[in-house]
Structure formats: C-alpha cells, structure tokens
Amino acid sequence: MFEVIGERINTSRKLVQAAVADRDVAYIIEDVKKQQDAGANYIDVNAGARIGHEEKDMRWLINTIQPIATIPLTLDSPDPAILEMAFQMVKNTPMINSISLEKDRFDAMMPFLSGKECKVIALCMDDSGMPAASDDIVNRAITLVEELNKIGIPTTSIYIDPLVQPISTDVNKGMMVLDAVWAIKTRFPEAHITGGLSNISYGLPQRKIINRTFVSLMMTAGMDSAIIDPLDSKIMATIRTADMLLGKDNFCMGYLKGVRSGMIES
Ligand code: THG
To answer: What are the sequence ranges of the domains in the chain?
Structure first.
C-alpha cells in the first residue's frame, strides 16, 4: 500500500515556526496526533527554517514528538551533522531524508549510513543541479541504488525522490518525471519512489487539483509514497482510490474502510 509521509512538522510553515519558537509542546503534539489519525505512515520532521537554530529546534521537536509518536519519524535535513544527531536521539528506526549525489553531502552521508538499518530517501540531485531530462533522473537513481547497496542498504529500504519540477516553466516536466519513475521502477522493482508533489503546480492557480491529479499519474508510473499533508482529505481520498484501482488494495478493504469512516467521498 501507498505510504504517506506527513509533511506538516516543518518550520517553513508559519504556525509550526511560531510553535517551535515558543516551545509550544501542546501545538506540536496535537498536530502529530492529527496526522497519525489521518493515516500517515511517517512523520517528517524538518527544523531548517530558523537560521542558526536547526540543531536546537530539531532536538526539541524530537523530544516533543517521540513520546506520543506511534509511527516512525522521517528526519529531514540537508545537513548530515543534524541527521546524525537526530538519528542518535530516536528510539525507533527512522527514515533518513536525505542523501543526494552532491559531493559534500554524499561523502558525509555514506559513512554515516554505512551498516545502518534505516530507510533512506535518495534525491536525484548532483552538483550540476536539478535533472534536465528523464535519463538524468534515471542515471542518478541507478548510481544512488548501487552505492547504497554497496554499504549494505537493501533496495527495499531505498526511497528514490526523482525531484518534481514546475510544469508552468516547461510543459514537458510532467512527462519527464513520469517516464523516469516508470524506468526506475522497471529496473528496481523493489525500490520505493517518493517525493514532494507540490512543485509541479508552482506558479499556477488552483494548485491542489494539479497536485492530486499528478499524484494519481505518478502512482500509475510507480510512485508508492509521497511527502504530503495527510489532513488534506481530498488528496488522501485520491491516493486511496488510485491504490485500489492499481490493484494494491486487497478486496478493496482500504477503500471500503475509508468510505465507512467518512474519509473518502465522491
Ligand atoms: N523531497 C524530500 N523532502 C522534502 C521535500 C521534497 N522535504 C520538504 C518538502 N519537500 C516537503 N515538505 C513540505 C512541508 C510543508 C509545505 C510544503 C512541503 C507547506 N508549504 C506551504 C506553501 O508552500 O504554501 C507553506 C505555507 C505556510 O506557511 O504554512 O505547507 O520534495 N525528500
């Protein structure tokens, strides 16, 4: 079944930033509980927005969330030192977000991940920047899987993020990533495909209809996870329905359960 990584605990969101600045434990706990109740499989924790405060904010968030979390955390930082610190704090094996092929980050992340039993998000990014063609995405994914396999991370623990780019700047950006996801999933059927979706609609009005149409297309190509807001009931209903239509929901049980609980409606 599709895995939802709840994105709400991110200091780039104004209310979360204020709650973190005020050390408002109740606000954060309430938000995490809501994401869990809405069906999240992981809670992404990103403390990157308050410049100079990431380490302390990340520590505080983990200490606040961990006692009430019933699902694993996704530790989200571009800084390998922050990820290492956070990894040591968590009791349940987390998901690491992320490694990439950018040299400094790659070189720092590989020894850290070596021999660890954790899931890892691998960004198809290198020092030349965002991928410009479908083949770039696929080639970077292949390198990432091969390198991670070498240090003992099994393909089933790897979540490839192909990096979604705005369709408003180039109408081919949708097909570019869809083709790449299809190719990666064909080459590595055991790998997962994840990522943020909202970049696709950047610069256009009515973004949510674009994001949720895109997630169903991405699921057809092989995406089986995404970093989204689980409290957005429309995208959650789209995901549950697409999962069923793609044969991932035995006896349509997930769909039926979603309808009975009122989470899915036409
Ligand atoms: N790939 C990976 N990790 C990621 C991303 C990705 N982590 C961060 C991000 N992208 C996904 N997380 C979020 C979290 C919150 C929001 C968007 C993405 C969000 N944004 C509002 C907006 O842009 O309108 C902010 C509004 C507010 O201030 O509340 O909510 O792609 N591996």
So the answer is: 3-261
- How much is the mean pLDDT over the chain? 97
Structure tokens that stand for 23 in this block: 């050390």
For atom 21 of ligand 1, the residue with the nearest CA is 13
Say what the pTM is: 0.97
Measured CA to CA, the distance from residue 155 to residue 160 in angstroms comes to 10
Mutate to test the pocket of ligand 1, among 4, 5, 11, 13 (most ligand atoms within 8 A of CB): 13
Amino acid 154: pLDDT: 97
Site to probe by mutation for ligand 1, drawn from 11, 12, 99 as the one with most ligand atoms within 8 Å of Cβ, is: 12
CATH number of 3-261: 3.20.20.20
Nearest CA to ligand 1 atom 9: 196
Helices (H), 126-223: 134-150, 173-187, 207-221
pLDDT tens per residue, range 81-117? 999 999 999 999 999 999 999 999 999 999 999 989 9
| Nearest-5° Cα angle at 8, 6 to 12 | 135
Name the region of 114 (left: φ>0; alpha: ψ -120 to 50; beta: rest): beta
pLDDT for 125 equals 98
Minimal-distance CA residue to ligand 1 atom 10: 196
Beta bridge partners of 119: 95
In angstroms, the CA 128 to CA 103 distance is 10
- The predicted-structure confidence for 246-256, as pLDDT tens digits, reads as follows 999 999 999 99
Alpha-carbon distance values, 241 to 75, 232, 265, 266 (Å): 28, 15, 10, 10
pLDDT of residue 88: 97
